[in-house]
Fold this protein.
Amino acid sequence: WSVRLARGGRDVRSPVTFAGEEMNRIEYKLTEQDLLRFNLYYSTISDLHQKQRRRHRVVVPSAYLILALLLCLSKSFVAATLFVLFAAGWFFFSPRLMSRRYRKIYEKHIRETVGDSLRKPMTLELRPDGISSSSYLGESKYRYSVVDRIVENDGYTYVFIGKGMALVLPHDRIAKENIASLVAEITQRKQEA
């Protein structure tokens, strides 16, 4: 994994300095694991995903309980008991099963869409007019005013651009001082925007 500060040949472990209108740039590599961790984190905070998980956890066991009630009315107590046990098992174990399912879906999606592009470094630049992000696949530019929030979680800092998209900054490949400087500068420029 390589990380380097591309301006002036400074060592990555030295703090980033943002002076005036000077353009600053950090290069680093992301891995499939980084993207997977972001997607799993986002699914835990997404209202839509939370509603789907709650609905999935309640609707299926409810259907089984209704079937168990109908079986009780027809005096099929053994089958009704099995349906009640299955409903309870579903209620308690479905969160774990859903987490595995989401993980597999995200892993497959990342493998199919990102592929070999992770072998090349990403570049994040803070410019006077916004944040520029570039990779092997292309370039994106974001005004500071569109930064929704900045979250630090489990070895990563996520700079959210809108609701479901974020710039992922891995702590193990970017010095903590550099991330702190980036966050401070983005926060300051967002307030000025």
User: Anything to note?
Assistant: The first strand starts at residue 3 and ends at 5. The helical segments are 32-45, 47-73, 77-113, 176-192.
